[in-house]
From TrEMBL:
This is Bacterial membrane protein YfhO. Keywords: Membrane, Transmembrane, Transmembrane helix. The lineage of its organism: Bacteria, Bacillati, Bacillota, Bacilli, Lactobacillales. It comes from the Bacteria. The chain crosses the membrane at residues 12-34, 80-104, 148-167, 187-220, 227-251, 290-310, 319-339, 351-369, 381-402, 554-572.
Length: 579
């Protein structure tokens, strides 16, 4: 028993060490390289960290990050992984904490894939190998390390749970009984809930593919009512669990006219053609590419391996491979060039769906070997070679496709922005940031995501850029200090004067504006979407502006947490009954 536990532990320990070695090679946990979304997500994590540090569990607006102008980013983006990142900031130095966060994500992705693989009939060794090559796939690592597509990679981690739930759903259609399958529903609920609490567009993509799969079942399977019953129950529970994000998001969208993130133009990088897809898969040496628009070399070769040995493969391996090919095609430019001009164009970067194909093809690669090779020792040897090959390809691409290139031109972010010289800094520029200057990432005026969901037609005037109060059309020398969901402004305010505050206002939120004497002011939102008050005859030298957490947000949290507690209680009771 003890030896068995050690053996099982090694199946997690060894991959965990491999992931740590790769991350240590990239930055030795001491510095971070620029990623497309790194600044944005670093700002989000710092925002939540500072709120938690000062006792606020629910950030509503950005006041420690995103230029400290009160944007509603915390409300509009799912925050499940952000909370994890914020907690790690309490434990480790800031950059080190970001690497630990990446490691936790990779281990989560690996562990879920390993468990799902075992549930689909793979042995301990087979499931570990499949999960390892899936997690080590170049496009997966690129999104974690280079692109820093934070919400997306966490959402991807939970997609295999949805895949397993849908596979099990097909088994409930074999008779005419309408019965709820608790395990199937639970898989779908957990998978969908954590996907939506990580990344909205990933959720939309998975829902779209689920709808296509459901349509297939309704057309070709007997028990249609059972399919609809199980999916409906799973959908209701998922919504209740996700209200923690959905309700504030919907209320904010309905209550304001905001600038929503624009869809990225359709390009080879966003949706590759076959030429780019193959180049990204097999590029070597100086042409090595650390990109997301491929499924990786092992998954790609698995397709041909299954096709060559088609007669020896079982039904599941064949179907998984064919579905993967369909998914890959659906993420290329051939279909999306017609869809990008429609409302579906908002689902940018169609190559995100490749992760489903990578997972299924990782399973197919292992199952194809199992069905062709009869000797256990030879099969296990091939699995080890496949894992080592996966590791070698990953390290090769990390080095030549990313680290060598970016390190040659990266500059350290040791510049501190000032009010006299607000920085316009392109997030895609090459830089690296150390523990001691990590906070500089919060000081750049221009960064991806900082201007998402701002009130429409807002003018980024000097008041907002410098965070200074305006009276009589003049900027006052102002000292701005961040507090949870608010800002404190210190200046020499004129009496009985209209005062423009350097914070944007949202109609869906209520604000509290008080001075050092606890006097509360009435406010309005001007044409530039900034908060405006009128000072009184009393002397004012400090204003505190806070956005109140809406009562509906607290209600959403209570409903979601209560639903989660009920699921845990029911789950424990069912487990006890089966013992």
């Amino acid at each position: 028993m003890h030896a068995s536990a050690i053996k099982k532990g090694c199946y997690y320990l060894i991959p965990g060490l491999v992931f740590a070695i790769i991350l240590a090679y990239v930055g030795r946990f001491g510095f971070l390289y620029a990623g497309a979304d790194l600044q944005f997500h670093a700002n989000r994590i710092v925002e939540f960290y500072n709120n938690l540090r000062q006792g606020n569990l629910i950030p509503v607006i950005s006041t420690f990050s995103a230029n400290q102008i009160g944007s509603i980013v915390p409300t509009m983006y799912p925050s499940f992984p952000v909370y994890i990142g914020a907690v790690l900031q309490f434990i480790f130095p800031p950059v080190t904490a970001m690497y630990v966060l990446m490691w936790v994500q990779l281990m989560t992705q690996f562990s879920i894939a390993k468990w799902v693989s075992k549930e689909l009939g793979l042995s301990l060794t087979e499931s570990t190998t499949a999960a390892f090559i899936y997690t080590m796939a170049v496009p997966t690592l690129s999104q974690v390390i280079q692109q820093w597509l934070f919400g997306e990679v966490w959402a991807m981690s939970f997609m295999p749970l949805v895949v397993l739930g849908l596979i099990r759903l097909t088994k409930t259609t074999t008779n005419n009984l309408v019965a709820l399958d608790k395990k199937t529903i639970l898989l779908l609920v957990i998978g969908f809930t954590f996907i939506i609490l990580s990344h909205v567009l990933s959720f939309a993509i998975v829902v779209g593919y689920t709808a296509i799969f459901t349509l297939f079942l309704l057309i070709f399977r007997k028990n249609r009512l059972n399919v609809l019953a199980n999916l409906s129950v799973a959908a209701v529970i998922t919504i209740l669990l996700s209200l923690i994000f959905l309700l504030p998001f919907i209320i904010a969208m309905l209550g304001n006219t905001m600038v929503t993130p624009a869809a990225t133009e359709l390009s080879i990088w966003a949706a590759p053609d076959w030429h780019e897809f193959i180049n990204s898969t097999f590029a070597i040496a100086g042409d090595a590419r650390f990109k997301t628009n491929t499924v990786g070399i092992i998954a790609f070769l698995a397709i041909f391996g299954v096709l060559v040995t088609w007669r020896k493969q079982d039904r599941f391996t064949k179907v998984a491979t064919l579905v993967s090919v369909g998914v890959i095609f659906s993420g290329t430019s051939y279909g999306w060039k017609y869809l990008y001009g429609t409302k579906l164009g908002v689902i940018q970067f169609p190559h995100r769906v490749f992760i489903i194909a990578i997972f299924l093809l990782s399973l197919s690669a292992i199952l194809a070997i199992r069905h062709v090779i009869n000797k256990n020792w030879l099969r296990n040897t091939i699995y080890v070679v496949l894992a080592l090959f996966s590791f070698g390809v990953a390290v090769f691409n990390v080095k030549y496709g990313f680290v060598d290139r970016v390190n040659a031109v990266a500059v350290q972010t040791n510049y501190k922005s000032t009010a006299k010289h607000p920085v316009s800094y392109t997030p895609m520029a090459n830089f690296k940031v150390h523990n001691e200057d990590f906070k500089n990432l919060m000081g750049y005026w221009v960064t991806y995501g900082a201007f998402d969901y701002l009130p429409k037609n807002v003018d980024f005037n000097q008041s907002l850029q410098k965070k200074e109060i305006v009276q009589d059309d003049k900027l006052l020398k102002t000292k701005a200090t961040s507090v949870p969901n608010g800002m404190v402004y210190r200046a020499k305010f004129a009496k009985n004067t209209t005062t423009v505050i350097p914070m944007v206002g949202y109609k869906s939120l209520k604000y509290e504006v008080t001075d050092q004497n606890k006097h509360q002011y009435q406010y309005k939102i001007n044409k530039n979407k900034q908060l405006v008050i009128k000072t009184t005859a009393a002397q004012v030298n400090r204003l505190t502006v806070r956005a109140k957490t809406p009562a509906t947000t607290y209600i959403a949290w209570i409903i979601s947490l209560a639903t989660g507690v009920c699921l845990i209680i029911f789950g424990v009771r069912d487990k006890r009954k089966t013992i």
